[in-house]
């Protein structure tokens, strides 16, 4: 049955001029409507790209960071180009009222992508005293309250058998049951068709599948990732140990599109019903913003593959247009962080189609977790088999817990209470990791607030959890969220490409990898900064300098890049090997296995990102037009901190 939300994606264009299909319709439209749909879709995309190119600083190049227009002037030009951006004003209201910490911290968060559960408003009890907070939408906001004494619930690790857990389940608390129902409802996934387990993070979910998949009979593992991922590498390592034959799709330079001919050969089989293996498909690249045609799932299924869909990079409402009932993948992995703009840790969810559970092998694994209410945690003194939990500020309760490197927690206020917790310190984002949506090293989280709104009981006594962020996304809808991200990311791409060094050659300051100005690109961006000599500024340095300017970026490594004969000369100049100096043994092993690729700076927009966020990134990058910018920053850093910035 088609989701009613699927209709939304055919109704929107830059000026509401025509219908635009999604990757879903590229593979599901009937023959007699395909031609018309593709024609209008193509016209819409061309119109969008042309209007963006002609409206964003037309016939202009910026060779000096002091010459770029002001925020106000840029926003005025932006809204002229994308007049329907004003229709997304509700997002700005939500940001000002429910995520006021973004304004208080004056921090631009562009280092992770995914789905949040709760709003900052749920962190704090609204007090009578009000204070004015500078914001794009100025409003009266509650002042931060005092901290609570302990987290109200935490995550507890356990060792278990994934197959048995899916078939029979464990003892599920009311909290876990309520959270499971809310998440499956949000993802439009039926409990009749899929079973779900909570996992510590995205890596744990991938590894659980790898350790249970029947590689003896279905020997292959085929993944489609244009970037190096800790989660995928973990799956590959576990699968190889169990005898899997590992393959990876390749991406054609320079646009980094899937090398279709090679992928089709890897998927294909003369014997259609032959058991092939596990096809791991990310739908979107969370680094370059590339979107991949969903038809690859169908091709894989027709050739006897089990399909795992990684939806961690999907936008908050993209599952509405995914067409789950049409593709019915065997496995889905999704992740949820706690509050946007803070420590982005949380947990992940592994969903398995009930008809596919039987193919799994019994295997004892770690990575499955329980959501443990605080009173149960306190009664056991935090001592549970196979459990590592990180807890802070617990001295008043005389509870001591070792904080181990492996510890991860998701903790906060359970419904029917209004205690508050200390906002967790944001993760320091170094190299592109999956920490944002993997929940690495989480501290405290809260489902707080007004007890009547946050605590509900249905007629049968089942507990419900109010996740304000999910509720807000549901109320905003697919069109509004998608349009907002589309306008912002394409303005950013267009503006970055206007930055040129002031020499006769006009060397571009920024190189963007993957899609450029494009209607259906994702809200993620991979780029590098080059000096006036054409030499790349190391992504780690760009990330560190951005952080000092209160902008959180990350950096990653593009790989599996295929060069045709036409670009053979560029191959040697473009590709590089990962450098040494890994921080730990795991990173060393990963880098040792890495093939050549490209290290890049990455930025990602969340549904709460606004124009000021994108402008601040643009203004920061423009400073590299000053040939002495890096040296000036190094000197200033040394003068202020009495130590030298690492380069």
Class per helix and strand makeup: alpha/beta
Biggest sheet: strands, sense, closure? Answer: 8 strands, mixed
The helix content, as a percent range, equals 25-40%
Radius of gyration (Å): 24 Å
Low-confidence spans: 1-22, 24-33, 125-152, 377-461, 580-588
**Ends: how far apart?**
55 Å
Q: What is the mean predicted local confidence, pLDDT?
A: 77
Helices, by number, come to 22
Strand and helix layout:
Elements (H helix, E strand, L loop, with lengths): L24 H4 L2 H25 L15 H11 L7 H10 L2 H5 L2 E2 L5 E4 L11 E4 L5 E4 L10 E9 H7 L5 H13 L7 E6 L2 H11 L7 E4 L6 H12 L3 E4 L2 E2 L4 E2 L1 H8 L9 E5 L13 H8 L2 E6 L13 H4 L3 E9 L6 E8 L10 E10 H6 L55 H4 L12 H4 E3 L5 E3 L2 H9 L1 H19 L13 E4 L10 E7 L5 E2 L1 H10 L2 E2 L1 E6 L1 E2 L5 H7 L10 H9 L3 E8 L6 H12 L6 H13 L6
Parallel strand pairs: 1-21, 2-13, 7-8, 7-11, 9-23, 11-12, 12-13
Antiparallel strand pairs: 3-4, 5-15, 6-14, 9-10, 13-14, 16-17, 18-19, 19-20, 19-24, 22-24
Helix pairs in contact: 8-9, 17-21
Account of the 3D structure:
The chain is α/β, with parallel strands linked by helices and 647 residues long. The chain has 22 helices and 24 strands. Strands 2, 6, 7, 8, 11, 12, 13 and 14 form an eight-stranded mixed sheet that branches. The longest helix has 25 residues, at 31-55. The N and C termini lie far apart (55 Å).
Short description:
Helix content is 33%, strand content 18%. The chain is an alpha/beta fold and 647 residues long. The strands form 7 sheets. Strands 2, 6, 7, 8, 11, 12, 13 and 14 form an 8-stranded mixed beta sheet that branches. Strands 18, 19, 20, 22 and 24 form a 5-stranded antiparallel beta sheet that branches. It has a 3-stranded mixed beta sheet with strand order 10-9-23, with no helix packed on it.
